[in-house]
Predict the structure.
Amino acid sequence: MSNRDKLKQLVIDVFLLDETEFRFDLRRTEIDTWDSLGVVSLAVGVHETFGYHPTPEEATALAGVDDVIALLAARGIALDA
Amino acid sequence: MSALLDAPPFAPRDDAAFLAEANALSAIHLAGSADYRAIWPELAISGARAATAAELPWLHVGVFKRLRLRTEAPGVKHQRVLLSSATTSGTSSQVALDEHSGRLQARSSQAILEDFVGPGRRPLIVLDDAAALRRRGEVSARVAAALSLVPLASTTTFALDGDQAAPRWDRIALALADADAALVYGFTWALWQSWARAERPDHVGALLRARRIHFVHSGGWKKLEAAAVDRDTFDRALLDDAGPGSRVCDFYGLVEQNGVIFPLCEHGARHVPRWAEVIVRDPWTLAPLPPGHTGLLQLINVLAHGAPYHSVLTEDLGELLDGACGCGRAGPRFTLRGRVPQAELRGCAVV
Amino acid sequence: MSDRTPTPTEIAEAWHGLRPAMIRERPPELSRDEWAYLIQFVDTSCLRGFIGPGRGRERVTLVLPGNVSLLGPLLMIVATLSARVIRVKLSSRSDDVVEPVLAFARRHGGPRLREVLAGVESARLTRDDPRLAAWLADADVRVAFGTDAAMAAIAQAPHRASSRFLGFGDMTSEAWLAPDASDDVIDTLIKVFAIYGAQGCTSPRRAVVLDGTPSDLRTLRSRLCARWPSVIRTPVPMHLASQNLLHAQLARHAGFDVALAPGHAAVLAKLTKLTPSPEEEGTVSTLSTLAQGPLTMTMAAAALDDAVAALPPNIQTIGLGFSADGAARARAALRGSPARRVVELARMHHFEPVWDGHHLPAVFFDA
Ligand SMILES: [Zn+2]
């Protein structure tokens, strides 16, 4: 599975989305379940999937799927790998 | 006295007269109860001038479980305290009864019941213990409900002794002997347990099958639902052993609205008498809801003088019904939708 | 399965390993906030703080009341780090969150965690059940929540001479804010309050604006009302909306100036002053149990010294919503006060190795 697919699956899993609801430009404001539990789950999930554990500040600052991509890129984890 | 009581309960309404009487009653309670003024400080200053029934001040039904409210006013003579059955929280509501309101409430319940069971006195059989009457200073909701039928009774027979589940059929047979009709009242559960499912001597069954019986019950379906008994089964079990023209009448009422009862009509609606009003409110905004939307029931009447229980926000859910009812009664009507679901918030020292 | 007892650190790691399952499924008995907190709590870096030197005490008995907060499962998890035999007495009457957490961990945990949990037994018992007496009699550590009277009875029940007792009684907590609190602080107060309302021992049952005026207090309440719906987006359950209407009336009756947060989400009951005059004593400074609702927050403005002087004896936590300077000043003033914990506002509910004046690692481990 590509990193791109892994991220998509992770977002679908932790935010309880339907596959058809997913987009790479989804914003936090569009997702009801991106609340306190969503923030924690996403951080744990990113760690589990990509090996990098966002700090609580980083996790709280994520405002959309593209921010996750940027955070990973800054840690040398490319999505197209 | 309320002029609204001079016409039959479900005759066309006079909403302006109702509002005027309700405003006057709020003013009496604001003047006569410091507790009420503390709860409605803004009205204590500006006075009670609601432009619609929905703007009338109200008390949450839970207030009556925590405060013993009384209104002092000229002509108000306090009598006993009416107690509701204790709820799961173990506390019961307390409603201060008074002589003046008592007369109005008796006229109200008699008029409403007559509209459903017809006029004329007949033997009343109460599925309760007469000992429940003899408590000093207070009266239970069950007894109050039974007493509201007394104006329709030629004789009154209490048919249970102590905690016995089986009624005294000998007393019942005696009460039925010379009548061609009768009223049987009990809490819904008692009517099921001690009447519908009880072993009946043959000669009592024969007496019942030769008479027109109105079974009147109140108190809710919770226990029967738990026992998986629906309304049809319940009604059939009662009517099996009853003569032609017999009927079952389920009414809803609160001790905090003593005197105003809401029997279920033959078209499944509960009708509001001219001297009362029902508002359905959104639990999260209190906005009055139009027909077809479920919300908290607020019950208002113009009979309660001894304490501010003329306008009560309940924890019962209901829905107003649109259009005219097939039974021909005028005025607003509603249907019950259960109670507000209860659950406790978690904490540390909550035991 | 393994031939040796796992170390506390290995047990902490076993809990940590539950997290991938936790982010994908939540037992419906726990709220999203509670589950989020639990996911963070089982992180090894957090659990490590609860491990003491020396040997773990073997047998722990937890006595939990009905509707216990997350503290119930948290203490159960802490106990697994040290103890081999853990007995949990649950309320015989109401719902509970310990069993759902246990069931989840047994279903999704690895072999090591399942082995540890094989030593956990829970049962819904009444307080006079002989099983509870037996559990208390042979425990090395006894932990109890509840009213002060209930706890005293549990502490006195027959027990070993060496047994430790931890009691979490009826405590109350406060949030202290600056008059010019930032929006972040306001939002944090709303979040912290919304979790257990006024029901938790670490819940801010009262908010105090330090060195504030009555007008600051009015402003604070308007800001809370204005921001509430955007911070807590799900409406309160219907019965709480209804209960809040009741408790707003009861608080008014008790002399408070009351507003409801939008959606009837909370009752915000304002005091004119924190320290009542002698003739007002007992009438306005705190809500009586009669009027204190599950989601009622009282609010007052007070000078720092008055706020310290007005602390109730059962004060547990003070959550501070200040800039660094303000917090330092408040901490200094609170030294020697009865407050057990002084923390940042956001950390009021955070369960920490030093809790209620007890150093938990020293209770669960025998150095
Ligand atoms: Zn009808």
Notes: The CA atoms of residues 157 and 174 of chain B lie 9 Å apart. Residues 3-339 of chain B form a domain with the Rossmann fold fold (CATH 3.40.50.12780). Chains B and A do not touch (no CB pair under 8 Å). Chain B has one domain: 3-339.
